[in-house]
Structure prediction request, 509 residues.
Amino acid sequence: MRRLVFSLLGIGAAAAAVAAAIVPAGSALAAGTGSTTTTFTISTGTLSISVPATANMGTVASGSTHVSALLGDVQVTDLRAALAGSWTTTVSSTNFVTGTGTGPETVPNSDVTYDPGDVVGSSGTGTFTPGTPGTLSSPITAFSATSEVGDTVVTWDPQITIQIPAGAVNGTYTGTITHSVA
Amino acid sequence: MRRLPAALVLAAVVLTAAAGPAAASTFSRRPVQGRVGVRLLTAPVSERANPLARLYIIDHLAPGATLRSKMQVVNMSKSAVLLNMYAAAATIGHGQFMFAVGHTQNLMTTWVHLSRPVLRLAAGRRADETVTIRVPRNAPPGEQYGVVWASDRGHDPAHKNISLVNRVGIRIYLSVGPGNPPGSNFTMAPPTTSRNASGRAQVTVQVHNTGGRALTLSGTLSLTGGPGGLRAGPFRLTTSAVIAPGQSAPVTFTLSPHIPNGPWRTKIRLQSGLVVRSESATIDFDAAALASAGFPVAPTAEVASLIALTALAAFVIRARRPQRRHA
Prediction:
Protein backbone atom coordinates (compact mmCIF):
# COMPACT_ATOMS: atom_id res chain seq x y z
CA MET A 1 0.00 0.00 0.00
CA ARG A 2 2.80 2.38 0.90
CA ARG A 3 4.62 1.58 -2.31
CA LEU A 4 1.53 2.31 -4.28
CA VAL A 5 1.08 5.70 -2.65
CA PHE A 6 4.72 6.51 -3.24
CA SER A 7 4.39 5.64 -6.94
CA LEU A 8 1.28 7.77 -7.24
CA LEU A 9 3.05 10.71 -5.66
CA GLY A 10 5.94 10.17 -8.07
CA ILE A 11 3.63 10.30 -11.08
CA GLY A 12 1.89 13.37 -9.71
CA ALA A 13 5.18 15.22 -9.28
CA ALA A 14 6.33 14.30 -12.77
CA ALA A 15 3.02 15.48 -14.25
CA ALA A 16 3.32 18.80 -12.42
CA ALA A 17 6.85 19.28 -13.75
CA VAL A 18 5.71 18.63 -17.31
CA ALA A 19 2.79 21.01 -16.89
CA ALA A 20 5.10 23.79 -15.71
CA ALA A 21 7.38 23.33 -18.72
CA ILE A 22 4.58 23.80 -21.23
CA VAL A 23 2.95 26.82 -19.61
CA PRO A 24 3.14 29.46 -22.35
CA ALA A 25 5.18 32.55 -21.81
CA GLY A 26 3.15 35.66 -21.13
CA SER A 27 0.91 33.92 -18.59
CA ALA A 28 0.83 34.92 -14.96
CA LEU A 29 3.53 32.41 -14.12
CA ALA A 30 6.04 33.74 -16.61
CA ALA A 31 5.52 37.47 -16.17
CA GLY A 32 5.35 39.89 -13.29
CA THR A 33 7.72 37.99 -11.05
CA GLY A 34 10.99 39.08 -12.70
CA SER A 35 11.36 35.64 -14.32
CA THR A 36 12.62 35.10 -17.84
CA THR A 37 10.43 34.38 -20.85
CA THR A 38 10.82 30.96 -22.44
CA THR A 39 12.43 31.18 -25.86
CA PHE A 40 12.93 29.13 -29.00
CA THR A 41 15.94 29.08 -31.29
CA ILE A 42 16.05 30.77 -34.67
CA SER A 43 18.37 29.67 -37.43
CA THR A 44 18.79 32.24 -40.14
CA GLY A 45 21.66 34.09 -41.69
CA THR A 46 22.72 37.61 -40.84
CA LEU A 47 21.84 41.10 -41.93
CA SER A 48 25.10 42.85 -42.78
CA ILE A 49 26.46 45.97 -44.39
CA SER A 50 29.83 46.67 -45.94
CA VAL A 51 31.15 50.09 -46.76
CA PRO A 52 34.62 51.18 -47.91
CA ALA A 53 36.76 51.94 -44.87
CA THR A 54 37.52 55.50 -45.85
CA ALA A 55 37.07 57.73 -48.82
CA ASN A 56 38.83 60.69 -50.22
CA MET A 57 36.91 63.58 -51.71
CA GLY A 58 39.97 65.01 -53.42
CA THR A 59 41.33 68.53 -53.40
CA VAL A 60 39.59 71.61 -54.66
CA ALA A 61 40.93 75.09 -55.17
CA SER A 62 39.65 77.63 -52.68
CA GLY A 63 36.90 79.66 -54.27
CA SER A 64 35.24 76.51 -55.59
CA THR A 65 31.62 76.24 -54.69
CA HIS A 66 31.39 72.51 -54.22
CA VAL A 67 33.19 69.20 -54.40
CA SER A 68 31.55 65.96 -55.39
CA ALA A 69 32.67 62.33 -55.42
CA LEU A 70 31.32 58.83 -55.41
CA LEU A 71 31.74 57.20 -52.01
CA GLY A 72 32.31 53.66 -53.24
CA ASP A 73 30.08 50.64 -53.12
CA VAL A 74 27.79 50.25 -50.14
CA GLN A 75 26.37 46.77 -49.94
CA VAL A 76 23.64 45.32 -47.71
CA THR A 77 23.37 41.55 -47.56
CA ASP A 78 20.23 40.12 -46.01
CA LEU A 79 20.53 36.39 -45.38
CA ARG A 80 17.68 36.20 -42.88
CA ALA A 81 15.61 34.41 -45.55
CA ALA A 82 12.31 35.92 -44.46
CA LEU A 83 9.02 35.42 -46.29
CA ALA A 84 8.27 39.15 -46.22
CA GLY A 85 11.48 40.74 -45.02
CA SER A 86 12.50 44.36 -45.07
CA TRP A 87 15.34 46.63 -44.02
CA THR A 88 16.06 50.32 -44.04
CA THR A 89 19.48 51.93 -44.32
CA THR A 90 19.81 55.50 -43.10
CA VAL A 91 22.81 57.77 -43.44
CA SER A 92 23.97 60.63 -41.25
CA SER A 93 27.01 62.87 -41.16
CA THR A 94 29.08 64.89 -38.74
CA ASN A 95 30.30 68.34 -39.62
CA PHE A 96 33.53 68.40 -41.59
CA VAL A 97 36.28 70.23 -39.73
CA THR A 98 39.86 71.24 -40.18
CA GLY A 99 42.30 72.60 -37.65
CA THR A 100 40.50 73.32 -34.41
CA GLY A 101 37.01 73.41 -35.84
CA THR A 102 36.16 77.06 -35.37
CA GLY A 103 33.51 78.71 -37.54
CA PRO A 104 35.58 79.24 -40.71
CA GLU A 105 37.19 75.84 -40.18
CA THR A 106 33.87 74.01 -40.30
CA VAL A 107 31.69 72.81 -43.13
CA PRO A 108 28.35 72.01 -41.46
CA ASN A 109 26.61 68.75 -42.29
CA SER A 110 23.75 70.75 -43.80
CA ASP A 111 26.16 71.47 -46.66
CA VAL A 112 26.68 67.76 -47.27
CA THR A 113 24.32 66.14 -49.78
CA TYR A 114 23.86 62.39 -50.23
CA ASP A 115 22.45 60.97 -53.45
CA PRO A 116 22.22 57.18 -53.41
CA GLY A 117 21.63 56.87 -57.15
CA ASP A 118 19.99 53.73 -58.47
CA VAL A 119 20.76 50.16 -57.57
CA VAL A 120 24.20 49.25 -58.91
CA GLY A 121 23.82 45.53 -58.39
CA SER A 122 21.34 43.27 -56.69
CA SER A 123 20.45 39.66 -56.25
CA GLY A 124 17.34 38.01 -54.90
CA THR A 125 13.68 38.96 -54.88
CA GLY A 126 12.41 42.16 -53.35
CA THR A 127 11.67 45.80 -54.00
CA PHE A 128 14.78 47.93 -53.51
CA THR A 129 14.10 51.64 -53.37
CA PRO A 130 16.70 54.41 -53.16
CA GLY A 131 16.01 57.15 -50.66
CA THR A 132 15.35 60.69 -51.80
CA PRO A 133 18.61 62.62 -52.19
CA GLY A 134 18.99 65.26 -49.52
CA THR A 135 21.28 67.08 -47.13
CA LEU A 136 22.59 65.33 -44.05
CA SER A 137 21.58 67.99 -41.52
CA SER A 138 19.60 65.12 -40.04
CA PRO A 139 19.64 61.43 -41.00
CA ILE A 140 17.96 60.47 -44.27
CA THR A 141 17.05 57.15 -45.80
CA ALA A 142 19.81 55.91 -48.09
CA PHE A 143 18.09 52.78 -49.37
CA SER A 144 15.34 50.45 -48.29
CA ALA A 145 14.23 46.96 -49.16
CA THR A 146 10.71 45.66 -48.76
CA SER A 147 8.75 42.54 -49.66
CA GLU A 148 11.94 40.49 -49.73
CA VAL A 149 11.46 36.80 -50.31
CA GLY A 150 14.53 34.84 -49.25
CA ASP A 151 18.09 36.14 -49.32
CA THR A 152 18.97 39.41 -51.02
CA VAL A 153 22.03 41.53 -51.75
CA VAL A 154 21.76 45.20 -52.73
CA THR A 155 24.61 47.47 -53.78
CA TRP A 156 24.61 51.18 -54.44
CA ASP A 157 27.32 53.79 -54.99
CA PRO A 158 26.22 57.05 -53.40
CA GLN A 159 27.43 60.45 -54.50
CA ILE A 160 28.50 62.90 -51.81
CA THR A 161 28.43 66.58 -52.66
CA ILE A 162 29.83 69.14 -50.27
CA GLN A 163 28.92 72.80 -50.74
CA ILE A 164 31.91 74.81 -49.63
CA PRO A 165 30.94 77.82 -47.53
CA ALA A 166 32.32 81.11 -48.82
CA GLY A 167 34.35 81.76 -45.68
CA ALA A 168 35.95 78.30 -45.42
CA VAL A 169 39.71 78.37 -44.93
CA ASN A 170 42.27 76.10 -46.57
CA GLY A 171 42.97 72.76 -45.01
CA THR A 172 42.05 69.11 -45.04
CA TYR A 173 38.52 68.74 -43.79
CA THR A 174 37.60 65.47 -42.15
CA GLY A 175 34.27 64.09 -41.09
CA THR A 176 32.42 60.86 -40.50
CA ILE A 177 29.50 59.49 -42.47
CA THR A 178 27.53 56.74 -40.77
CA HIS A 179 25.35 54.16 -42.50
CA SER A 180 22.87 52.35 -40.25
CA VAL A 181 20.85 49.33 -41.32
CA ALA A 182 18.25 47.43 -39.30
CA MET B 1 19.16 21.27 -91.13
CA ARG B 2 22.43 21.76 -89.32
CA ARG B 3 22.38 21.08 -85.63
CA LEU B 4 23.79 23.86 -83.50
CA PRO B 5 26.92 22.90 -81.60
CA ALA B 6 26.02 21.97 -78.05
CA ALA B 7 28.10 24.79 -76.55
CA LEU B 8 26.30 27.43 -78.58
CA VAL B 9 22.89 26.09 -77.62
CA LEU B 10 23.88 26.11 -73.97
CA ALA B 11 25.09 29.69 -74.23
CA ALA B 12 21.79 30.75 -75.76
CA VAL B 13 19.88 29.14 -72.91
CA VAL B 14 22.02 30.85 -70.27
CA LEU B 15 21.59 34.26 -71.90
CA THR B 16 17.83 33.91 -71.99
CA ALA B 17 17.66 33.00 -68.34
CA ALA B 18 19.80 35.94 -67.33
CA ALA B 19 17.47 38.34 -69.14
CA GLY B 20 14.53 37.32 -66.96
CA PRO B 21 12.95 39.62 -64.42
CA ALA B 22 13.22 40.02 -60.67
CA ALA B 23 15.34 37.00 -59.75
CA ALA B 24 18.30 37.86 -62.01
CA SER B 25 21.61 38.68 -60.32
CA THR B 26 24.10 41.33 -61.15
CA PHE B 27 27.28 41.74 -59.19
CA SER B 28 28.72 44.81 -57.51
CA ARG B 29 31.34 46.56 -59.52
CA ARG B 30 34.27 46.33 -57.18
CA PRO B 31 35.02 44.47 -53.98
CA VAL B 32 34.04 46.14 -50.74
CA GLN B 33 35.95 45.96 -47.51
CA GLY B 34 34.76 45.17 -44.06
CA ARG B 35 31.47 43.48 -43.37
CA VAL B 36 29.77 43.12 -40.01
CA GLY B 37 26.51 41.23 -39.64
CA VAL B 38 23.99 40.52 -36.90
CA ARG B 39 21.24 37.99 -36.46
CA LEU B 40 18.69 37.14 -33.82
CA LEU B 41 19.23 33.75 -32.19
CA THR B 42 16.17 33.37 -29.96
CA ALA B 43 12.62 34.64 -29.72
CA PRO B 44 9.88 34.27 -27.09
CA VAL B 45 7.78 31.13 -27.40
CA SER B 46 4.68 33.34 -27.25
CA GLU B 47 5.73 34.86 -30.59
CA ARG B 48 6.56 31.58 -32.31
CA ALA B 49 3.82 31.96 -34.92
CA ASN B 50 4.80 35.54 -35.79
CA PRO B 51 7.30 35.59 -38.70
CA LEU B 52 8.46 39.09 -37.68
CA ALA B 53 9.74 37.69 -34.37
CA ARG B 54 12.56 36.01 -36.29
CA LEU B 55 13.79 39.37 -37.51
CA TYR B 56 13.13 41.70 -34.57
CA ILE B 57 13.00 41.56 -30.77
CA ILE B 58 9.24 41.62 -30.26
CA ASP B 59 7.55 40.98 -26.94
CA HIS B 60 4.86 42.07 -24.49
CA LEU B 61 5.99 42.23 -20.88
CA ALA B 62 4.31 43.11 -17.62
CA PRO B 63 6.01 45.67 -15.38
CA GLY B 64 8.70 43.90 -13.36
CA ALA B 65 9.35 41.24 -16.01
CA THR B 66 12.63 40.57 -17.82
CA LEU B 67 13.26 39.58 -21.42
CA ARG B 68 16.51 37.89 -22.38
CA SER B 69 17.14 37.73 -26.09
CA LYS B 70 20.21 36.29 -27.75
CA MET B 71 21.81 37.76 -30.84
CA GLN B 72 24.99 37.02 -32.74
CA VAL B 73 27.53 39.38 -34.27
CA VAL B 74 29.68 38.16 -37.14
CA ASN B 75 32.82 39.70 -38.60
CA MET B 76 32.92 38.69 -42.24
CA SER B 77 35.85 40.88 -43.19
CA LYS B 78 39.51 40.02 -43.58
CA SER B 79 40.69 42.02 -40.58
CA ALA B 80 39.76 42.33 -36.95
CA VAL B 81 37.05 44.81 -36.00
CA LEU B 82 36.35 46.72 -32.83
CA LEU B 83 32.62 47.15 -32.38
CA ASN B 84 30.61 49.43 -30.13
CA MET B 85 27.57 47.56 -28.83
CA TYR B 86 24.67 49.64 -27.54
CA ALA B 87 20.93 50.14 -27.65
CA ALA B 88 19.53 53.39 -29.02
CA ALA B 89 16.09 54.86 -29.56
CA ALA B 90 13.81 54.65 -32.58
CA THR B 91 10.43 56.08 -33.51
CA ILE B 92 7.77 55.21 -36.05
CA GLY B 93 6.36 57.86 -38.37
CA HIS B 94 5.45 58.47 -42.01
CA GLY B 95 5.21 54.74 -42.56
CA GLN B 96 8.81 54.17 -41.48
CA PHE B 97 10.82 52.85 -38.57
CA MET B 98 13.26 55.71 -37.93
CA PHE B 99 16.54 55.24 -36.08
CA ALA B 100 17.66 58.02 -33.76
CA VAL B 101 21.10 59.53 -34.30
CA GLY B 102 24.05 57.99 -32.51
CA HIS B 103 23.45 56.88 -28.93
CA THR B 104 20.19 58.82 -28.38
CA GLN B 105 18.13 57.07 -25.71
CA ASN B 106 14.46 56.83 -24.87
CA LEU B 107 12.84 55.41 -21.73
CA MET B 108 12.82 51.81 -23.02
CA THR B 109 16.44 51.78 -24.17
CA THR B 110 17.52 52.67 -20.63
CA TRP B 111 16.10 49.29 -19.58
CA VAL B 112 18.33 47.44 -22.08
CA HIS B 113 21.55 45.89 -20.86
CA LEU B 114 24.27 44.33 -23.01
CA SER B 115 27.07 42.27 -21.53
CA ARG B 116 29.84 44.40 -23.03
CA PRO B 117 29.97 47.84 -24.62
CA VAL B 118 32.92 47.00 -26.86
CA LEU B 119 33.43 43.77 -28.76
CA ARG B 120 36.61 42.83 -30.55
CA LEU B 121 36.17 40.22 -33.26
CA ALA B 122 39.03 38.67 -35.24
CA ALA B 123 38.56 38.15 -38.95
CA GLY B 124 35.85 35.62 -39.68
CA ARG B 125 34.84 35.22 -36.02
CA ARG B 126 31.41 35.50 -34.44
CA ALA B 127 30.22 36.16 -30.89
CA ASP B 128 26.92 35.71 -29.11
CA GLU B 129 25.46 38.55 -27.10
CA THR B 130 22.60 38.50 -24.61
CA VAL B 131 20.24 41.46 -24.72
CA THR B 132 18.56 41.81 -21.33
CA ILE B 133 15.54 44.11 -21.03
CA ARG B 134 14.38 44.65 -17.44
CA VAL B 135 11.01 46.38 -17.30
CA PRO B 136 10.73 48.39 -14.06
CA ARG B 137 7.64 48.03 -11.87
CA ASN B 138 6.58 51.63 -12.57
CA ALA B 139 6.92 51.29 -16.36
CA PRO B 140 4.19 53.09 -18.32
CA PRO B 141 1.96 50.92 -20.53
CA GLY B 142 2.31 51.03 -24.30
CA GLU B 143 4.78 50.14 -27.00
CA GLN B 144 8.26 51.63 -27.37
CA TYR B 145 10.87 51.14 -30.05
CA GLY B 146 14.65 50.95 -30.28
CA VAL B 147 17.56 49.19 -31.95
CA VAL B 148 20.44 47.12 -30.58
CA TRP B 149 23.43 48.27 -32.63
CA ALA B 150 26.80 46.73 -33.47
CA SER B 151 28.77 49.71 -34.72
CA ASP B 152 32.07 49.56 -36.52
CA ARG B 153 34.30 52.23 -34.98
CA GLY B 154 35.48 54.99 -37.29
CA HIS B 155 38.75 54.47 -39.07
CA ASP B 156 41.80 56.67 -38.86
CA PRO B 157 41.33 59.36 -41.46
CA ALA B 158 45.05 60.10 -41.61
CA HIS B 159 45.24 59.64 -45.35
CA LYS B 160 41.61 59.83 -46.35
CA ASN B 161 39.32 62.58 -45.26
CA ILE B 162 35.96 60.82 -44.85
CA SER B 163 35.66 58.16 -42.17
CA LEU B 164 32.88 55.71 -42.86
CA VAL B 165 31.17 54.09 -39.93
CA ASN B 166 28.69 51.34 -40.47
CA ARG B 167 26.35 49.97 -37.91
CA VAL B 168 23.95 47.10 -38.23
CA GLY B 169 21.22 46.35 -35.74
CA ILE B 170 18.18 44.47 -34.60
CA ARG B 171 14.96 46.39 -34.01
CA ILE B 172 13.13 46.23 -30.68
CA TYR B 173 9.35 46.46 -30.49
CA LEU B 174 8.55 46.25 -26.78
CA SER B 175 4.98 46.43 -25.48
CA VAL B 176 4.47 46.93 -21.74
CA GLY B 177 1.29 46.21 -19.79
CA PRO B 178 -0.28 43.76 -17.35
CA GLY B 179 -1.90 40.58 -18.63
CA ASN B 180 -2.30 39.69 -22.27
CA PRO B 181 -0.78 41.76 -25.08
CA PRO B 182 -3.08 44.23 -26.86
CA GLY B 183 -4.43 42.89 -30.14
CA SER B 184 -3.24 43.98 -33.56
CA ASN B 185 -5.75 45.41 -36.01
CA PHE B 186 -5.99 47.80 -38.93
CA THR B 187 -8.46 49.19 -41.44
CA MET B 188 -7.98 49.77 -45.15
CA ALA B 189 -9.57 52.70 -47.00
CA PRO B 190 -10.83 52.15 -50.57
CA PRO B 191 -7.91 52.14 -53.02
CA THR B 192 -7.01 55.14 -55.15
CA THR B 193 -5.16 54.93 -58.46
CA SER B 194 -2.65 57.02 -60.37
CA ARG B 195 0.21 56.78 -62.82
CA ASN B 196 3.60 58.07 -61.74
CA ALA B 197 6.01 60.16 -63.83
CA SER B 198 7.34 57.05 -65.61
CA GLY B 199 3.83 55.92 -66.50
CA ARG B 200 3.75 53.13 -63.94
CA ALA B 201 0.29 52.26 -62.67
CA GLN B 202 -0.01 52.79 -58.92
CA VAL B 203 -2.59 51.72 -56.39
CA THR B 204 -2.53 53.37 -52.96
CA VAL B 205 -4.40 52.30 -49.83
CA GLN B 206 -4.55 54.40 -46.67
CA VAL B 207 -4.08 52.11 -43.68
CA HIS B 208 -5.11 53.06 -40.15
CA ASN B 209 -3.62 51.11 -37.22
CA THR B 210 -6.56 50.53 -34.89
CA GLY B 211 -4.79 47.98 -32.68
CA GLY B 212 -2.26 48.23 -29.88
CA ARG B 213 0.93 46.97 -31.61
CA ALA B 214 3.02 48.41 -34.42
CA LEU B 215 2.33 47.00 -37.85
CA THR B 216 4.97 45.97 -40.37
CA LEU B 217 2.94 45.52 -43.51
CA SER B 218 3.52 43.31 -46.49
CA GLY B 219 0.92 42.36 -49.02
CA THR B 220 -0.23 41.53 -52.52
CA LEU B 221 -2.49 43.03 -55.14
CA SER B 222 -4.23 41.04 -57.88
CA LEU B 223 -6.02 42.34 -60.95
CA THR B 224 -8.77 40.38 -62.69
CA GLY B 225 -11.52 41.04 -65.23
CA GLY B 226 -9.49 43.63 -67.11
CA PRO B 227 -9.70 44.73 -70.77
CA GLY B 228 -9.98 41.68 -73.01
CA GLY B 229 -10.35 39.45 -69.97
CA LEU B 230 -6.80 40.15 -68.82
CA ARG B 231 -5.63 39.32 -65.33
CA ALA B 232 -2.35 40.37 -63.70
CA GLY B 233 -0.43 39.80 -60.50
CA PRO B 234 -0.26 39.07 -57.72
CA PHE B 235 2.08 42.00 -57.23
CA ARG B 236 3.96 42.59 -53.98
CA LEU B 237 3.82 45.77 -51.95
CA THR B 238 6.52 48.23 -53.08
CA THR B 239 6.56 50.69 -50.17
CA SER B 240 7.79 49.99 -46.67
CA ALA B 241 4.97 50.39 -44.21
CA VAL B 242 5.60 50.45 -40.49
CA ILE B 243 2.69 52.04 -38.64
CA ALA B 244 2.46 52.66 -34.88
CA PRO B 245 -0.82 52.27 -32.94
CA GLY B 246 -3.18 55.15 -33.78
CA GLN B 247 -1.20 56.22 -36.85
CA SER B 248 -2.25 56.21 -40.48
CA ALA B 249 -0.03 55.83 -43.51
CA PRO B 250 -0.48 55.14 -47.22
CA VAL B 251 0.91 51.97 -48.80
CA THR B 252 1.48 51.82 -52.52
CA PHE B 253 1.70 49.07 -55.11
CA THR B 254 3.69 50.27 -58.13
CA LEU B 255 2.99 48.21 -61.23
CA SER B 256 4.34 48.07 -64.76
CA PRO B 257 3.74 50.96 -67.19
CA HIS B 258 2.28 48.34 -69.58
CA ILE B 259 -0.77 47.65 -67.42
CA PRO B 260 -3.80 48.90 -69.41
CA ASN B 261 -6.03 51.48 -67.75
CA GLY B 262 -8.91 49.12 -67.10
CA PRO B 263 -11.43 48.98 -65.62
CA TRP B 264 -10.09 46.24 -63.39
CA ARG B 265 -11.40 44.29 -60.49
CA THR B 266 -8.74 44.32 -57.80
CA LYS B 267 -8.18 42.34 -54.63
CA ILE B 268 -5.69 43.76 -52.13
CA ARG B 269 -4.42 41.69 -49.24
CA LEU B 270 -2.30 43.25 -46.46
CA GLN B 271 -0.62 41.37 -43.65
CA SER B 272 1.36 42.21 -40.53
CA GLY B 273 2.60 39.24 -38.55
CA LEU B 274 -0.52 37.14 -38.09
CA VAL B 275 -3.15 39.81 -38.88
CA VAL B 276 -4.49 39.71 -42.44
CA ARG B 277 -7.02 42.09 -44.00
CA SER B 278 -8.20 42.34 -47.58
CA GLU B 279 -10.50 44.40 -49.72
CA SER B 280 -11.87 44.25 -53.26
CA ALA B 281 -12.72 47.16 -55.51
CA THR B 282 -13.22 48.21 -59.11
CA ILE B 283 -10.45 50.54 -60.25
CA ASP B 284 -9.27 52.32 -63.37
CA PHE B 285 -5.87 53.88 -63.98
CA ASP B 286 -7.23 56.52 -66.34
CA ALA B 287 -8.54 59.27 -64.10
CA ALA B 288 -10.63 60.95 -66.80
CA ALA B 289 -12.39 57.74 -67.87
CA LEU B 290 -13.04 56.84 -64.27
CA ALA B 291 -14.63 60.16 -63.38
CA SER B 292 -16.99 60.11 -66.40
CA ALA B 293 -18.07 56.54 -65.62
CA GLY B 294 -19.08 57.67 -62.15
CA PHE B 295 -16.28 56.03 -60.21
CA PRO B 296 -14.37 58.62 -58.22
CA VAL B 297 -10.64 58.15 -58.59
CA ALA B 298 -10.16 59.64 -55.18
CA PRO B 299 -13.42 60.23 -53.33
CA THR B 300 -13.89 63.96 -53.01
CA ALA B 301 -16.74 66.12 -51.79
CA GLU B 302 -17.04 67.82 -55.20
CA VAL B 303 -17.40 64.52 -57.08
CA ALA B 304 -19.88 63.20 -54.54
CA SER B 305 -22.04 66.34 -54.74
CA LEU B 306 -21.86 66.33 -58.58
CA ILE B 307 -23.12 62.77 -58.66
CA ALA B 308 -25.89 63.67 -56.21
CA LEU B 309 -26.94 66.71 -58.29
CA THR B 310 -26.93 64.65 -61.49
CA ALA B 311 -29.12 62.02 -59.84
CA LEU B 312 -31.49 64.68 -58.53
CA ALA B 313 -31.75 66.35 -61.96
CA ALA B 314 -32.51 62.99 -63.58
CA PHE B 315 -35.24 62.37 -61.02
CA VAL B 316 -36.79 65.81 -61.51
CA ILE B 317 -36.76 65.53 -65.34
CA ARG B 318 -38.40 62.12 -65.18
CA ALA B 319 -41.13 63.35 -62.85
CA ARG B 320 -41.99 66.26 -65.12
CA ARG B 321 -42.15 64.28 -68.38
CA PRO B 322 -45.73 64.64 -69.79
CA GLN B 323 -47.93 61.58 -70.29
CA ARG B 324 -47.64 60.36 -73.88
CA ARG B 325 -50.75 58.25 -73.91
CA HIS B 326 -54.26 59.37 -73.36
CA ALA B 327 -56.90 57.17 -72.01
